[in-house]
Amino acid sequence: MFESLSEKLQTVFKKLRGKGGLTESDVNEALREVRLVLLEADVNYKVVKDFVAAIKERAIGQDVLKGLNPAQQVIKIVNEEMIRLLGGEQAKLKIADKPPTVIMVAGLHGAGKTTQVAKLANMFKGQGRKPLLVAGDVYRPAAILQLKTLGSQIGVDVFDIGDRQDAVAVAKAALNYARSNGNDPILIDVAGRLHIDEEMMSELRRLRAEINVTEVLLVVDAMTGQDAVNVASQFNEALELDGILMTKMDGDARGGAALSIRAVTGKPIKFIGTSEKMDGIEPFHPDRMASRILGMGDVLSLIEKAQEAFDESEAIELEKKLRENRFDLNDYLTQLQQMRKMGPLDKLLEMIPGMSSQLKDAKIDEKEFNRVEAILRSMTNDERSDPSVLNASRRKRIAFGSGTSVQDVNRLMKQFDEMRKMIRAMTGAADSGKRRKRMPNMPFFG
Question: Of 53-67, 84-98, 333-347, which gets the smallest average pLDDT?
């Protein structure tokens, strides 16, 4: 996400840090490079101009240039201005005073509107709520079928009364159904077009007025850059949006749309799509995104992902096992499965401050996860509990059962032995205050 933009900005800041003391000329040169980097990233020209001017006004002053560490202060100012550019504080969904909350999701064809509606429903379901998907795209039978398929996949009800109906009538019927069945929120997948036209906008305005919509979200494709910003501006002028849901953020190396859209439209990004999976959606946090762009990591999001994936009671039991040196392959398999719930390893490493640049050229083999898990699952519970019983014939059987080689099994056991040695060394060194320097090889790096 924003890989190209992040790398170039970090190069600029590295030059600043290398200078020690800064002059006004140094700051001007750095800001000139920042301006070029942002323009190359397809950020709106006026947005870039205002952004750089705001930084310059704050950075070129005696308090900064004569301070103890002027380079860090300039970077701090850039971070603060980028947070402001991205929206400042997290913008949350509005909640209806009287349930159900009605969320209308609009967008052009190709932006991933129907998929994002289903992702939102899946997110609400994970929060313990009972969402209802509404097939409001009455012009395309394929859209209704797609929503039903996605609803079935995530276990969420889908309301429809067939195609060629009036979208407002569908929404009103869905509202009555939701009140009778206790659904909240209602997510309406409305019709999209290849381009913005008055017919579409008229229908959306009628929907908003007649069913008292709580929130209007617009789905835009981050990969389309300033086209996404232009679409958002036109929708906002015609409809008065409440927020943006930006898709394909995981594939956007430049970041022009995300950095421009709030300043141009005045509407916040509320959610971002981070993968094609049904759980690939996140609330948008401007401060965390600015931190990631500037190479400072995103520890808060990493902690949240860990809290979602790891059970607290299991973590306490695991800590006890580690202290008592009872960590076995069953625990190893459990930890592997829970870590996989958090998402791709390379995405997790990006959230750790400094790791993104250090591991830029490292090749992380996600398929190794599958091989390791297959090997562990091919063992019996007794073998995972006591790996010392894994003689040559057992290892041969495990390799055959997992579709791997004996060498793969041997490599995994060697890595596990190294890990247990490290754990013993760490727990043994805890009292003496010593720390083991060498870390074992992990099975996920090619």
Answer: 333-347
Backbone φ and ψ of 443, nearest 5°? -80, 10
> Cα separations (Å) of 384 from 328, 380, 422, 424?
6, 6, 19, 19
Q: Are 137 and 203 in contact (CB under 8 A)?
A: no
Is residue 296 within 8 Å of 268, Cβ to Cβ?
no
Contacts 24+ apart (CB under 8 A), 383-386: 383/329, 384/328, 384/329, 384/330, 384/332, 384/333, 385/328, 385/329, 385/330, 386/328
Rounded-to-integer distance, Cα 166 and Cα 202, Å: 13
Tell me the three state secondary structure of residue 34. Answer: helix
Mean pLDDT is lowest, of 53-62, 199-208, 308-317, for 308-317
pLDDT at position 130? 93
Six token digits for residue 392: 């040559």
The predicted pLDDT at position 418 comes to 82
3-state helix, strand, coil in the chain (%, to 5): 60, 10, 30
Portion of the chain with pLDDT greater than 90, in percent: 19
Residue 419 buriedness (CB in 10 A; 0-12 / 13-18 / 19+): middle
Domain 3-86 architecture: Up-down Bundle (1.20)
Q: What is the pLDDT of residue 316?
A: 66
The CB-side HSE value for 86 (13 A sphere, CA atoms) comes to 25
Report the phi/psi class of residue 327: left, alpha or beta, with left for phi > 0 and alpha for psi in -120 to 50. Answer: beta
**214 burial type by CB count under 10 A (0-12 exposed, 13-18 middle, 19+ buried):** buried
DSSP track, 100-114: PPEEEEEE-TTS-HH
Given a cut of 80, whether residue 19 has pLDDT beyond it is: no
Spell out the domain ranges in the chain. 3-86, 102-295, 303-432
More confident residue, 434 or 285: 285
Tell me the backbone φ, ψ of residue 252, rounded to 5 degrees. Answer: -95, 100
- As a whole number of angstroms, the distance between CA 288 and CA 16 comes to 23
Of the candidates 102, 93, 104, 94, the one whose C-alpha atom is nearest the C-alpha of residue 204 is 104
Q: In whole angstroms, give the CA distance from residue 397 to residue 372.
A: 15
CATH class entry, domain 303-432: mainly alpha
Q: Which CATH number fits domain 102-295: 2.60.40.10, 3.40.50.620, 3.40.50.300, 3.40.50.1220?
A: 3.40.50.300
- CB distance 237 to 261 below 8 Å: no
